[in-house]
């Protein structure tokens, strides 16, 4: 029985090495992320360290025995006795030394006993990890042991063989589940790096439980398709053909409020809607000129409002229009004075739709912070 540590770049590479070196009888005991190279841990490459347990090496041909130090340092391979010695508490070692001085004749007996005891503990751990209680009924297991104690008959032998076959199938299933868990963990880490929410990630991973780790070359396209579908389902798409009355556009500076308003106006115009445009973005002359150009091309009326009273008058004059699109100046979510001015205009409009625009390349944390600051406007 051997334990070996593999250092790989991806989980797929680890599974390929495990199957090549150990076959189907290897078990993954532990995985962890490490870094190699760099300067004091900075700039190093990311690797995955996989600890593997094997009852028998697949390529177990005779090889000249290396020194203990060289073997462990070069192959990262440890026998059970090595692990036992490395994990023996210091207090136990001191006690063993005292017993060596007082009772030298009993040294070998006690050492063999401690090694046997630790080996039994590790063997028991491996045996426990193989069991899947939800797959094998306890009564069937008791039935198996009960009939093993009696003289084997033809029916008992058949039952035993069937149960052994079932247990082997469960063990293989357990291995595949462990491999899939590592594969899904890799996907989960990548989504976290891209700032997707925990709720979205967990919901998406639940849709990947049927993927097989052996079919990585197929999985990439499947994952991409399912991710696009999940992302689309998570977005609430507003049908602008159904909107009416007053629609107000708010958001930070430079996110494209004016351009978006013009695109929606063009779509509504194609639907033969009677529309008008109001702008209160009088801080930038270019913004007003831009809207004038859009309004002339679309053949719709444009109203420029400098004060809340101007805005109120314009709204009263446009009561017979189907849709009124209201453009606002970009506001910094960190400037309380600007946000207060925007709140005054919003109260005058009392919009039926209050749409907040944010750039799609904004990271998740900044997007949440922006929304929190605009939230009192109830977008």
UniProtKB/TrEMBL annotation:
Q: Which keywords annotate this record?
A: Bacterial flagellum biogenesis, Bacterial flagellum protein export, Cell membrane, GTP-binding, Membrane, Nucleotide-binding, Protein transport, Transport
| SMART domains xref list | AAA, SRP54
Q: Does the keyword RNA-binding apply?
A: no
Give start and end of each SRP54-type proteins GTP-binding domain.
Answer: 244-378
Where's it found, cell-wise?
Answer: Cell membrane
The superkingdom listed in its UniProt entry is Bacteria
Task: Show the segment(s) annotated as Disordered.
Answer: 58-78, 94-115
Q: In Gene Ontology terms, what is one molecular function of this protein?
A: GTPase activity
The reply to whether GTP-binding figures as a keyword in the UniProt entry is: yes
Q: How does it sit in the membrane?
A: Peripheral membrane protein
Which PANTHER family has this protein been placed in? FLAGELLAR BIOSYNTHESIS PROTEIN FLHF, SIGNAL RECOGNITION PARTICLE RECEPTOR SUBUNIT ALPHA
Q: What is this protein called?
A: Flagellar biosynthesis protein FlhF
Query: What does UniProt list as this organism's lineage?
Result: Bacteria, Thermotogati, Thermotogota, Thermotogae, Petrotogales
